[in-house]
C-alpha cells in the first residue's frame, strides 16, 4: 500500500519504491532501491534437544531401510545446510502488511526463506532494513514448551527417535505461506478510566501439516514485545498450498475468516475465533467454496470487497488461480443467510497461471502465464451473480519476446509491475537469463487526474502511482492542462480541504521543474578546482561571523541554484543568480514566468503552513492549563499568524484570543542552547538568535530542533525533531504526522 515492490531472489529481497520526485526535472520514473539480505546461517527447526536431534539425524541417515535413509537425506527441511547438496539460500515468498504498522506508519515486510525461516522486517531509517522478530524461532519454542501438542487434550505422541514423529514435528512448523489481515482498532481503558484506541494486526501462517498459526501484533510493531497472542487452527485440508484473509463488512460489523486452497483443488473459508479482539466477528462454521479433488492446484487467492449495484449492499469476490483457469466465488450476506455463487473463467491462458494480482479499488483482476501473456479480467454484475470481461495484454508488443514470472498492480491501479526474462529468439532459448522488473502503464493521464480530484483517501503519498502519471504529463507538455487547473480551483473554492492545496502545490512544483533549463554539466560531478579557487581568492577571510553568514546563505540557496538550472561554477554564482534592479524591464518572458510560478508556490506553502499552525494551536489550547509552559513556541506562532495584515481568518483570530487569555501575558520564549539567548519566531523554517546561531524548525510542532539528529520527510521537503520522553502524548501525536506539504512519512 505504500508503493513498494518486493522481489524475492536467491540473495535477497529487492525492494523497489516508486517516488514522485518534485525536485527532479526528468520524465523517467523515479525508483528507490533497497534490499533485505538473506541470512547467512541455515535455519534449523526446533524439534527437540540438540544432542537428541543430532543422534536421531545420524540414526536416520545410516538406516538400513532405504525408505527412511533416502527420504531423510533428500528432504531439505531436515537438511537445510545442504552438505553435498547446494545450500537453500534465498527467499521464496514475501508479504506486505497494511499501511500504518511500523514505527513510521508504513508497511512491514514478512519474509519466508528457502530454508523455512519466517521473519518480519521494517525499514526504519530509510536506507536499511531491520529484522524485528524471528517467528519461526518463537513458534518452535512455544511448541517445545507444549511438548509438540496443539492442546492439552491431545494424546502424547511417539518419541523423537521414531521417524514419523520426527517428520510430524518438522511439518507442524514448516511455513508454506503467510498473509496479513487488515488493521483492527480496539479501545483500551487506562488507569485514569480514559479510553485510547489501540491498533492491532493479524498475521496468518499456513504450515505444511495444514495447521494455521494466527499471530496478533500490537501496533506500532516494534519487536517481540509487541506480540499479543498466537492461536493455532486446524484447517483439515490435505496438502495446503495458499491462503488469504476473507474480510467482509455487513451492517457496520466486520467479519473475517481465512480462505485456504489445496494443491489437490479444494478451496474453503475457515472461521477464526479470536476472543482477545473486541468488535471482531467470524463465521459459525467452515464454508466450502470448491470441493472437487480435480488435481488442479490452487496457486493464488485474492479477496476483493465490492458493492453490489442490484442488491444494494456490500459483497465479497474471491478469485483463485487454478491451473490455467480462474475460479471465482461471490459471497453475499442477505436475510436468508450467506449466498455463495461460484464458477470458473476458462480460455484465458494456454499455460498454467504463474501469478495473479487484483486492483481492490475497482475489482479488476490480472493474470499471467509464463509465455508473456497477461489477461485483464473486469467483473460486471448481473441480476443473479456476475460475469467477467477479459482482454489480452501482449507484453511482446512492448518489450519484445519475453517470459513472465510474476505480476503486481500498484495500489491505485496506475501501473503493473512485471518480472520478465528474455524469450525465445528464432526458436532458441537465451544463453543467460536476466531478470528485470518492468512497469506497464494501465491508466491515462486524464483518468489519473480525475481519480486524484475525486479521491476519498485525500493523501498524495498513498496515491504516488497516480501523481507520477500527472508529473510525467506536465514535464512532457511543460504546462498544467486547463481542465485540471479549473477543476482543482473549483474544488478549493467549494470545500477548501488542505488536500487540494497540497495537490496544487505539487502541480506548481512540477511545472516549475518543467520550465528549467537542462544543466550543461552533470549535477553530481564534483568540481575540485573551482572549490580551491574560491578558497584562495575569496576576500575577507578574517571575519568568522561573516563567513558563517555567507556559508549559511550559500546553504540556503543551494536548492534554488539546482532548481533554476544555472551553471554551477562557483565564481559566476553571484553574477548569474542575483537579479539586478536595472534588468527587471528587460527580463525574458520565461524568467518572468518562473518568478510568477515561484511566487505561487510560496503563497500555497504559506497557506498550508498557516492551516497547520491553526491545528497546532488548537492542540495547545485543548491540552494546556492556564499559564502552563509548553515546549511549543505558542506566543511566537500566534504573532507569526497575525503579523500579515492581509491574512484575515476569523477562526484563527478567535483561537488566538482564547490562547492569549489562557497564557495570561506569559510569553514562554525558546532559548538558544549554546548561548541562552532568546530565539525569536520570525521564520517558519529556522530560528536565529542574536548571536547568529541558527536552528532549523520542526515543521510539525514549530519547535527549534536544537540537536544534531532530526528526521526528514521522504521527499526532503521539511525536517522534524524526534519525540522525547518528556513530551506529553498530544505532542507525540503531532510528531507522528506526515509532511504538511507532500503527505510523505518522516524518517
TrEMBL record:
Record-level GO cellular component terms: transcription factor TFIIIC complex
Protein origin, superkingdom: Eukaryota
Domain spans labelled DUF5921: 444-521
Region (Disordered): 534-561
Gene Ontology biological-process annotations: transcription initiation at RNA polymerase III promoter
InterPro entries for this protein: DUF5921, GTF3C4, TFIIIC_delta_N, TFIIIC_Znf, WD40_repeat_dom_sf
UniProt cross-references to Pfam families, sorted A to Z: DUF5921 (PF19336), TFIIIC_delta (PF12657), zf-TFIIIC (PF12660)
Domain Transcription factor IIIC putative zinc-finger: 664-714
Stretches assigned to the Transcription factor IIIC 90kDa subunit N-terminal domain: 1-443
A GO MF label: histone acetyltransferase activity
Protein name: TF3C4 factor
Species name: Thinocorus orbignyianus
Amino acid at each position: 500500500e505504500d508503493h513498494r515492490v518486493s522481489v524475492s531472489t536467491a540473495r535477497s529481497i529487492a525492494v523497489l519504491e516508486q517516488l514522485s520526485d518534485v525536485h527532479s526535472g526528468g520524465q523517467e520514473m523515479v525508483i528507490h532501491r533497497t534490499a533485505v539480505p538473506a541470512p547467512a546461517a541455515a535455519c534449523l527447526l526446533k524439534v527437540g534437544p540438540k544432542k537428541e536431534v543430532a543422534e536421531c539425524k545420524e540414526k536416520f541417515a545410516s538406516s538400513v531401510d532405504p525408505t527412511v535413509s533416502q527420504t531423510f537425506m533428500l528432504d531439505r527441511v531436515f537438511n537445510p545446510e545442504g552438505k553435498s547438496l547446494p545450500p537453500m539460500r534465498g527467499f521464496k515468498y514475501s508479504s506486505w502488511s497494511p499501511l500504518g504498522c511500523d514505527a513510521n506508519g508504513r508497511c512491514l515486510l514478512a519474509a519466508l526463506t528457502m530454508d523455512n525461516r519466517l521473519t518480519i522486517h521494517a525499514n526504519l531509517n530509510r536506507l536499511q532494513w531491520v529484522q524485528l522478530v524471528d517467528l519461526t524461532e518463537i513458534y518452535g519454542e512455544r511448541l517445545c514448551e507444549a511438548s509438540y501438542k496443539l492442546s492439552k487434550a491431545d494424546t502424547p505422541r511417539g518419541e523423537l527417535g521414531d521417524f514419523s514423529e520426527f517428520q510430524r514435528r518438522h511439518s507442524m512448523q514448516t511455513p508454506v505461506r503467510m498473509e496479513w489481515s487488515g488493521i483492527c482498532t480496539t479501545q483500551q481503558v487506562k488507569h485514569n478510566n480514559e479510553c485510547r484506541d489501540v491498533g492491532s494486526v493479524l498475521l496468518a501462517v499456513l504450515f505444511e501439516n495444514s495447521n494455521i498459526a494466527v499471530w496478533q501484533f500490537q501496533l506500532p510493531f516494534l519487536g517481540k514485545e509487541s506480540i499479543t497472542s498466537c492461536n493455532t487452527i486446524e484447517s483439515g485440508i490435505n496438502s495446503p498450498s495458499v491462503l488469504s484473509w476473507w474480510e467482509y463488512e455487513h451492517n457496520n460489523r466486520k467479519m473475517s475468516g481465512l480462505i485456504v486452497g489445496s494443491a489437490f483443488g479444494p478451496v474453503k473459508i475457515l472461521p477464526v475465533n479470536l476472543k482477545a479482539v473486541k468488535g471482531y466477528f467470524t463465521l459459525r462454521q467452515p464454508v466450502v467454496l470448491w470441493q472437487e479433488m480435480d488435481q488442479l492446484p490452487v496457486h493464488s487467492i485474492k479477496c476483493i470487497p465490492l458493492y453490489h449495484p442490484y442488491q444494494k449492499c456490500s459483497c465479497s469476490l474471491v478469485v483463485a488461480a487454478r491451473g490455467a483457469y480462474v475460479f471465482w466465488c461471490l459471497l453475499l450476506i442477505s436475510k436468508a443467510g450467506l449466498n455463495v455463487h461460484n464458477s470458473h473463467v476458462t480460455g484465458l491462458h494456454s499455460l498454467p497461471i504463474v501469478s495473479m494480482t487484483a486492483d481492490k479499488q475497482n475489482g479488476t483482476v490480472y493474470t499471467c502465464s509464463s509465455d508473456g501473456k497477461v489477461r485483464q479480467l473486469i467483473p460486471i454484475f448481473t441480476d443473479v451473480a456476475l460475469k467477467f470481461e477479459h482482454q489480452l495484454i501482449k507484453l511482446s508488443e512492448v518489450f519484445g519476446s519475453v517470459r513472465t514470472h510474476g505480476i503486481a498492480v500498484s495500489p491505485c491501479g496506475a501501473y503493473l509491475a512485471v518480472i520478465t526474462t528474455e524469450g525465445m529468439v528464432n526458436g532458441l532459448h537465451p544463453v543467460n537469463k536476466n531478470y528485470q522488473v518492468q512497469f506497464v502503464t494501465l491508466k491515462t493521464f486524464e483518468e489519473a487526474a480525475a481519480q486524484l480530484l475525486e479521491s476519498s483517501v485525500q493523501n498524495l503519498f498513498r496515491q504516488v502511482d497516480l501523481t507520477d502519471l500527472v508529473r510525467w504529463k506536465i514535464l512532457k507538455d511543460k504546462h498544467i492542462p486547463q481542465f485540471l487547473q479549473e477543476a482543482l480551483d473549483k474544488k478549493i473554492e467549494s470545500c477548501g480541504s488542505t488536500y487540494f492545496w497540497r495537490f496544487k502545490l505539487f502541480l506548481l512544483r512540477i511545472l516549475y521543474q518543467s520550465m528549467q533549463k537542462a544543466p550543461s554539466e552533470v549535477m553530481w560531478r564534483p568540481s575540485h578546482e573551482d572549490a580551491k579557487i574560491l578558497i584562495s581568492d575569496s576576500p575577507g577571510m578574517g571575519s568568522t561571523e561573516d563567513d558563517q553568514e555567507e556559508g549559511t546563505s550559500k546553504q540556503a540557496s543551494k536548492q534554488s541554484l539546482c532548481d533554476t538550472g544555472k551553471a554551477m561554477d562557483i565564481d559566476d554564482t553571484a553574477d548569474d543568480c542575483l537579479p539586478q534592479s536595472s534588468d527587471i524591464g528587460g527580463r525574458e518572458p520565461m524568467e518572468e514566468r518562473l518568478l510568477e510560478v515561484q511566487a505561487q508556490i510560496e503563497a500555497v506553502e504559506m497557506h498550508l503552513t498557516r492551516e497547520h499552525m491553526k491545528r497546532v494551536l488548537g492542540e495547545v489550547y485543548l491540552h494546556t492549563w492556564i499559564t502552563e509552559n509548553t515546549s511549543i513556541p505558542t506566543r511566537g506562532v500566534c504573532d507569526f499568524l497575525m503579523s500579515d495584515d492581509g491574512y484575515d481568518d476569523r477562526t484563527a483570530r478567535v483561537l488566538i484570543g482564547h490562547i492569549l487569555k489562557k497564557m495570561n501575558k506569559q510569553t514562554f520564549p525558546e532559548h538558544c542552547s549554546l548561548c541562552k539567548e532568546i530565539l525569536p519566531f520570525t521564520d517558519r523554517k529556522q530560528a536565529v538568535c542574536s548571536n547568529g546561531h541558527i536552528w532549523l524548525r520542526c515543521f510539525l510542532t514549530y519547535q527549534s530542533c536544537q540537536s544534531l539528529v532530526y528526521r526528514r520527510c521522504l521527499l526532503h521537503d521539511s525536517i522534524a525533531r524526534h519525540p522525547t520522553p518528556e513530551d506529553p502524548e498530544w505532542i507525540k501525536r503531532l510528531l507522528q504526522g506526515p509532511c504538511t506539504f507532500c503527505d510523505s512519512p518522516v524518517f
